[in-house]
Amino acid sequence: MIGPSSDAAALIAYLQTLRSEENVAAMARFGIVTDTALGISNPDVRAVAKKVRKDHLRAMELWQSDVREARLLALYTAEPKRLMMEEARHWANDFNSWEIVDCAADLFVEARLDELIREFAANEREFVRRTAFAMISGAAVHRKDDPDTELLAWLPLIEAHARDSRNFVRKAVNWALRSIGKRSRACHAPALTLATRLAESSDKTARWIGKDAVRELSGEKLLARLN
Asked: At what angle do helices 85-92 and 115-122 cross, to 10 degrees?
């Protein structure tokens, strides 16, 4: 049995008992890096996280294992208030999969490590740069008490990287733009203006990002909700 007192080694051993080769093959089809995967679904990893609760030092040890599910468990059980920027940078150096990035971005947003957004966006590595825009999207969705002006301040950064054609970057840039635009009436107009400008770009990637965002931000249901 596992519980709050279980150490990292015990948890990794438990995760090994849940291994599913069939699920590993299925994950690969969704672009998940499976070199060290055990084939455990995210909901099942979250269920383990609920049983063992948060433990920051143990999360650091879980991350060192390099096992996909152990790293997800590390992200789910780290303590946001104790997470330091240097620790986040260290983890970012290991990012090699979009799902790990997106889970980490939620943690970084909760830890309010916003200073890392520009730093990560300036990083040329695909998954580190994706982290910046996943963080922007996460802040737009989850930090409802933050002033809209703080989200709007990220629009120039979105525009600056809208020509990065790498799949996991362009999708995250698009995601960030749409998330800001859907946040509130105050955010909608500036985001739609940027989306429209990108949709008219001569650059193929920027044009895709813009057109896709315009389509969602012009939807009747969204406009009705914002009004």
From this structure: 30
